[in-house]
């Protein structure tokens, strides 16, 4: 978890962060459509409350789209991070991690049905690459050398991590997309349509 980076952001925004381990970051690929995105935000905050966790703030993830192709930009989600505090009834970090998984499943599993009910097909674009107190996944429809340039967090000197993993793969049996970029493994390629990801753990 890049705690120093997030504390720097929090200080500038007037946000108070709990101690490391007592807050989590949800990396969110949000719908492009404004109405669908509003529902996604509402659903996320609703399930946090249901599970007794504390919503702290939304952070717009800084990106630089220089050099990205039209097709990539056309499919690019709105990328935001939700900062979530451990609820008073959650006894420790491991219990908190289990709550985060529960929230993630409750949020994502009914999306297709909810999108039909509300006539918001864009709602199915909502995807959480990661939601943890320990790990943040930065991924996208990018080449390996574009990841650090696109996600400017990754070139910020305040970003410190005990482990960083970059993975790139061919999209052999699926059409390449932002949400299908893989955050783990090792299979370098040079395909222009290859999704790529970087995982930061600290």
Q: State the helix count.
A: 6
Helix content: 25-40%
Q: Strand sequence of the main sheet, in spatial order?
A: 2-3-1-4
How many E strands?
7
Structural class label: alpha+beta
Short key terms for the protein model shown above:
single chain; 202 residues; alpha+beta; Glutamine Phosphoribosylpyrophosphate, subunit 1, domain 1; 3-stranded antiparallel beta sheet; 6 helices; 7 strands; 32% helix; globular; disordered C terminus; glutamate biosynthesis
How are the elements arranged and paired?
Elements: H1 3-13, E1 23-30, H2 34-50, E2 54-60, H3 70-75, E3 78-85, H4 93-108, H5 111-117, E4 127-132, E5 135-140, H6 144-150, E6 163-168, E7 196-201
Antiparallel strand pairs: 1-3, 1-4, 2-3, 5-7, 6-7
Helix pairs in contact: 2-4
